[in-house]
Design a protein that fits this description.
The protein has a single domain, classed as 3-Layer(aba) Sandwich (Collagenase (Catalytic Domain)). The relative contact order is 0.15. The chain contains nine helices and seven strands; from the N terminus they run ββαβααβαββαβαααα. With 310 residues, it is α/β, with parallel strands linked by helices.
């Protein structure tokens, strides 16, 4: 079981056929307008719920990975999860059998009435569809000061639950991103050998600091929040970033960690593994000289344009 699990900013549990994510965050903005702050928080919650929910289709790999995760993070709910899956699997199998018998009876009646029977549809008895709900519970701390990191360190010293720190501010050049605090940088490279871990040394107890741009459209802000929350949960990027040698992960066009789409089954699997082992999960990539230089020139042009635009 994860040590100091009570201090984790994002707790994971299972109850009543729902995988629960209990998110405790501290949002810092330059504005003092309470209505504007509440609007940002509402958009963040809506974006995460839309891109991460409302249900998850359990495959065999996801089931085993989630069992391993619950064993470490929420062992008291593991047996409830297994019991619900067994019940759902039996119910789904029974429904498929009843549907198959109905098709067979219909075909026999057609033959009896001397009518041409159509082909019987295929019914897969080996892979029943098991769905569980995805539910988010958000709690926040109110903080009017300019130094939320002090609240974070004070909570750590007290042994209390650490809030997830989120900064919403004007960002002319830098995109939305997540990074670790200063004391966790650089040495993260020696944990997994990845370049991104130099600045983002992820762990469930220290998921990082989230930076989001202000003054963006509501739909874009929601997608950004859902994507950056993927980093907070232990996922690396799948798009052609510089620390991936500008190599996009094949088949990830609709992934949350590529195009800010809806979270996919492979991403769930990597997330469960990251939460279990305490290390950031990475999508495979390879280095190609031509692709790297093309990606580098494209990114330089992009940032030069942003620097000199009015």
């Amino acid at each position: 079981m994860l040590r100091k699990s009570k201090q984790v900013p994002v707790r994971i549990d299972y109850a009543e056929n729902n995988l629960l994510f209990q998110v405790h965050w501290l949002v810092q903005t330059k504005t003092t307008d309470r209505q504007e702050i509440d609007l940002y928080i509402r958009l963040m919650e809506e974006g995460i719920r839309k891109s991460w929910g409302p249900t998850l289709d359990l495959t065999e790999d996801l089931y085993l990975a989630l069992c391993q995760l619950l064993q470490k993070r929420a062992p008291q709910s593991l047996e409830d999860f297994k019991r619900d899956v067994r019940r759902k699997r039996a119910e789904d199998l029974r429904r498929r059998q009843e549907r198959a018998y109905g098709y067979l009876n219909s075909a026999l009646r057609q033959l009896k009435d001397k009518r041409k029977a159509g082909p019987l549809p295929r019914v897969n008895f080996n892979n029943p569809t098991i769905k569980i709900g995805i539910r988010f519970i958000f709690t926040r701390e109110s903080f009017a000061g300019k130094y939320p990191l002090w609240r974070f360190f004070r909570r750590s010293l007290e042994g209390a639950r650490r809030p997830l720190l989120i900064y919403i501010k004007s960002m002319r050049i830098a995109p939305a991103h997540v990074k670790s605090s200063i004391f966790r940088r650089v040495w993260g490279f020696f944990r997994d050998g990845k370049i991104i871990s130099i600045g983002f040394n992820w762990h469930p107890l220290y998921p990082g600091l989230m930076f989001l741009p202000a003054n963006r459209s509501s739909s874009y802000f929601k997608k950004l929040t859902a994507h950056e929350f993927g980093h907070i949960m232990g996922l690396s990027d799948a798009y052609s970033a510089w620390y991936r040698a500008y190599d996009e992960y094949a088949g990830s066009e609709n992934y949350l960690m590529n195009s800010n789409g809806h979270i996919q089954a492979e991403e769930w699997l990597l997330l469960f593994k990251a939460q279990s082992c305490g290390k950031l999960s990475h999508f495979p990539y390879r280095f190609e000289g031509k692709g790297f230089w093309q990606g580098l020139k494209k990114e330089l042009r992009y940032y030069m344009k942003k620097i000199f635009q009015k």
